[in-house]
Design brief:
The chain is mainly α. About 50% of the residues lie in helices and about 5% in strands. It is built from one helix and two strands; from the N terminus they run H-E-E. A two-stranded antiparallel ribbon has the order 1-2. The longest helix has about 50 residues.
C-alpha cells in the first residue's frame, strides 16, 4: 500500500511539474510589481476590507480611462421598504 501511495505521488509530481514551472515564471514576471503594489496599497486595502461587510453586494471593480478604479454597489434586489407617505399636519391639530 505504501509503495502504491509513493507511485501515485510520484506520478502526480511529474504531471504537475510543467504547471509549477509556468507558475514560477509568472511569479518571477509579476512578483516585483505585486510586491510594490502591496507595499503601497496594502494598508488602504486592509482598511477598505474592514469597512466592507459583504463583498457580494458590490460589482466588479472598473478601471476608467483616466486610471481611476471604481467599485459600485449592486442595485438592490426585490421590493424595498418604502415608508408610507404621510400628509404634513400642523402640530396641535386633530384629525376628525
Amino acid at each position: 500500500m505504501e509503495q502504491g501511495a509513493e507511485l501515485f505521488f510520484k506520478g502526480l509530481r511529474q504531471e504537475m511539474e510543467p504547471a509549477l514551472g509556468d507558475l514560477q515564471g509568472l511569479v518571477s514576471q509579476f512578483g516585483p510589481a505585486m510586491q510594490s503594489f502591496i507595499e503601497e496599497m496594502g494598508p488602504a486595502l486592509a482598511e477598505l476590507a474592514g469597512e466592507i461587510q459583504d463583498w457580494s453586494a458590490y460589482e466588479a471593480p472598473e478601471i476608467l480611462p483616466n486610471g481611476d478604479i471604481i467599485i459600485r454597489k449592486k442595485p438592490p434586489q426585490g421590493p424595498q421598504n418604502v415608508p408610507e407617505e404621510t400628509e404634513d399636519v400642523p402640530e396641535g391639530s386633530t384629525d376628525i
